[in-house]
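Below is how a single chain appears once it has passed through the pipeline. First comes the sequence as given, then the structure the pipeline wrote out for it. We keep one example in the README because the format questions we get most often are answered faster by looking than by reading.
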Amino acid sequence: MTVDRTDTTDSTAVTAAPAKNTAAPAPPRRRRNWAPVLFLLPFFIPFVLFTLVPVGYAFYQSLLRTERTGGTFGRRTTVFAGLDQYGEVFGDAEFLGSVGRVLLFGLVQIPVMLLLALVLALLLDSTVARLKRFFRIAYFVPYGIPGVIAALMWAFLYDPRLSPVVDLLDRAGSAPDFLGSSMMLWSIGNIVTWTYTGYNMLIIYAALQAVPSDVYEAARMDGAGEATIARRIKVPILRPALILTGVFSIIGTLQLFTEPQVLRSISTSVTSTYTPNLAAYSLASSDNYSEAAAMSVTLALATFVLSFGFLKLTGRKGES
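Resulting structure:
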């Protein structure tokens, strides 16, 4: 008798394992990248200590006023004056005249200086230029001379009693008075242009060196000459460098101090309020620290506004 054997399944049902919690795991926390902060610290710390802190302290000083109680020889006390010092600054005709003077100076001197720097950089970058290293150093040397020394040297060349240049011009029938009131501003402009043209030229020339030579080779293969390459390719590429040097020049113009201070010792055309910086220095020298601080803060704000406005203006022109 044959017995059929069949596979039988266990009657016990296999129960499914209980479902686990399917909630998504929390995303890993991003690690902060402190590298940019560390690279900015060498700039940020001196900027805070030597720019923001002095400006903040000057603003605090500008809110105070020193008064003398008990007559001329009485005790001096410092009282809170609010914004009264700023009212006196904006009502000072001599200070406003000095601001107008440096603005006129900048409108003429800055374009002339940057144009000379641009031309020198383009000449150095041309294919026909020789002795490039020598001329780079020669153009940069005036910037390496301390400002006081440069001003003294030019004062010697301006003084009609000592200058061989003035003597030669006098013999030729032209005797300009470089230290007179009508020419003093442009005599200072000549010193500033001589000093900083090479510095700005180096910035512009460095920007030219970053341009791949293939761009110029392609233009030459299309038949463009050196003048066309300079006008159509190099100058547009140099726009950021020109904006940078323009901002530096605006800041330097509003801080004009060394040259008029040196020339003041040999010419009566330079007064104690010839430039805003000189006016603030003269007030501080006469123990009027509060109004000098107000002038300094006003000058710092004017520098910021003009520099930022120049950046915005050039930025809009670049986008159009």
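Confidence is low (pLDDT under 50) at residues 5-16.

See the next section for the split statistics.
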